[in-house]
C-alpha cells in the first residue's frame, strides 16, 4: 500500500513533457523502389516483403524553394518602391521587412485598388525613384579626395569633382555638380586637407551634399607632401568657416556604379 502511494506521488512530481512531442511541418514524398503486385477485386492482398519497404526520395518540401510573395506597399520604402506599388519579394523578406512593420499589405484586388487610388489622389512624391535616396545616402557618407596640382595654378571646376567621383566609383555628369559660390584657387598649402561641400543633384530632384577635401600632388617625387595614412579618418578644418557658403543646386541624373537608379 505504502509503495503504491510513493509511486503515485513520484509520477506526479517528476512528470515532464518531452519537447520531441511537438509537431513539425515536414513533408517527404517517397516512392517504392519495388512496388507490390496488384490484386484483383475482392482478392486478398499478398503479404508484403522486406523489399517493398525500400523507398526512394522524390521530394523534400523542407528544402524546396518557396515562391515569391507579392505585396502592396502602403508607403515609400527605400530601395523597394513607392506607395501603391506591387512588389514581389522572398517570403522571409516580405514578412520581416514589410508586412510586420506595416509597410505593406497582402496583394488582393481590394488592396491594389485602394492604394492605387490613394496614390493618384496624393500629391507628387518627393522621391524620384526607389533607389534615389540610397544614392544620396551613399554620396553624403563619402569623404571625397580632390587631388590638385602642387606646382601649377588652378581653379576647382565641376570636372575636377567629376573625375574625383569617378575614382571613387561614381559616374556623375558635370551639369549635376554645383560648387560653392566662392571660387577655390591654388596651389595653396594652407588649404591642404581642408574641407568644403559641393552639391550633386540626382534625377533633377534629390540633392546630396558631398564632403570634399583638397590634397596637393606633385609629379616630382621629391616635392610631394608626406603621405598621411587613412587621412579620411582624421578631423579636417572647414575651408569657408563653420557653415560655408550656400551652394545652389544643378539639375542632372548621375549614375553610380555602387548604387544605380
From TrEMBL:
Q: Which GO terms describe its biological process?
A: translation
Q: Which Pfam family, giving just one, matches this sequence?
A: Ribosomal_L9_N
Residue ranges annotated for the Ribosomal protein L9 domain, each copy included: 70-115
Organism whose genome encodes this protein: Anopheles epiroticus
Location in or out of the cell: Mitochondrion
**GO cellular component term, pick one:** ribosome
Q: What keywords is this UniProt entry annotated with?
A: Mitochondrion, Ribonucleoprotein, Ribosomal protein, Transit peptide
Identify its protein family. Belongs to the bacterial ribosomal protein bL9 family.
Instruction: Name the Gene Ontology molecular function terms of this record.
Output: structural constituent of ribosome
What name appears for this protein in its UniProt entry? Large ribosomal subunit protein bL9m
State the PANTHER family in the record: 50S RIBOSOMAL PROTEIN L9
Its taxonomic path starts at: Eukaryota, Metazoa, Ecdysozoa, Arthropoda, Hexapoda
Amino acid at each position: 500500500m505504502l509503495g503504491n502511494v510513493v509511486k503515485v506521488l513520484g509520477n506526479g512530481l517528476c512528470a515532464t513533457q518531452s519537447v520531441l512531442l511537438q509537431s513539425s511541418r515536414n513533408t517527404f514524398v517517397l516512392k517504392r523502389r519495388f512496388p507490390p503486385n496488384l490484386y484483383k477485386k475482392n482478392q486478398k492482398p499478398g503479404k508484403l516483403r522486406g523489399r517493398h519497404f525500400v523507398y526512394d526520395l522524390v521530394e523534400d518540401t523542407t528544402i524546396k524553394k518557396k515562391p515569391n510573395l507579392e505585396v502592396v506597399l502602403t508607403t515609400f520604402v527605400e530601395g523597394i518602391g513607392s506607395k501603391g506599388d506591387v512588389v514581389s519579394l522572398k517570403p522571409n523578406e516580405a514578412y520581416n521587412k514589410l508586412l510586420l512593420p506595416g509597410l505593406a499589405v497582402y496583394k488582393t484586388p481590394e488592396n491594389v485598388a485602394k492604394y492605387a487610388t490613394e496614390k493618384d489622389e496624393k500629391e507628387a512624391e518627393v522621391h524620384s525613384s526607389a533607389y534615389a535616396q540610397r544614392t544620396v545616402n551613399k554620396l553624403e557618407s563619402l569623404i571625397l579626395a580632390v587631388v590638385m596640382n602642387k606646382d601649377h595654378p588652378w581653379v576647382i571646376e565641376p570636372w575636377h569633382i567629376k573625375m574625383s567621383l569617378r575614382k571613387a566609383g561614381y559616374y556623375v555628369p558635370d551639369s549635376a555638380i554645383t560648387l560653392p559660390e566662392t571660387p577655390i584657387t591654388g596651389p595653396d598649402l594652407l588649404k591642404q586637407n581642408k574641407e568644403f561641400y559641393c552639391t550633386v543633384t540626382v534625377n533633377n530632384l534629390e540633392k546630396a551634399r558631398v564632403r570634399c577635401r583638397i590634397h596637393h600632388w606633385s609629379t616630382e617625387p621629391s616635392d610631394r607632401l608626406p603621405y598621411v595614412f587613412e587621412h579620411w579618418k582624421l578631423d579636417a578644418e572647414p575651408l569657408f568657416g563653420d557653415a560655408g557658403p550656400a551652394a545652389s543646386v544643378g539639375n542632372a541624373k548621375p549614375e553610380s556604379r555602387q548604387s544605380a537608379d
